[in-house]
Design brief:
- The protein has 151 residues and is mainly β.
- The chain has one domain.
- The chain is built from two helices and eight strands.
- A hairpin with a 4-residue loop joins β6 and β7.
Length: 151
Amino acid sequence: MSSIRFSLHKSPNDSLQHLLLLVRQRPVMHWVLPATAGRSMSGLLERGLLLEASEVIALPELIAQGRCQLAYDTTPSTCGSLRAALAKGRLLVTLSGPEVQGTYSLIRLHETSPAWLLSPATYVPGQRPQAGAASSSFSAASLRSQTAGLA
């Protein structure tokens, strides 16, 4: 089992949510996202922009939590593999919790930027395409762009 966990929090004073990746209950990465771009009613995170947060503040309201696995790791993910993926600026993570489930792509917009793009993954290496996904959306170019640097 992966030692990486995730937690999603809501700030009561503003319209922001906080997504944290944790190892042994210590934050490794912390992003802030608008609450409107957060969790949908289906238990999936929606596509949106995230900003890195430099500090972990007291986060009063826990919305969701669970396990986190780097989707392209065949063995349980470790802190080292997570830090390496963060340094590259590309993550493909599978979140498994009672409130939030799914595989998501997190891509840094520029190597020096604190902005990241979060989107549900449409392709996971080594897995079949998700049921109901349009086959025309799986062109060779789109697969290469989604998985560039993940190997």
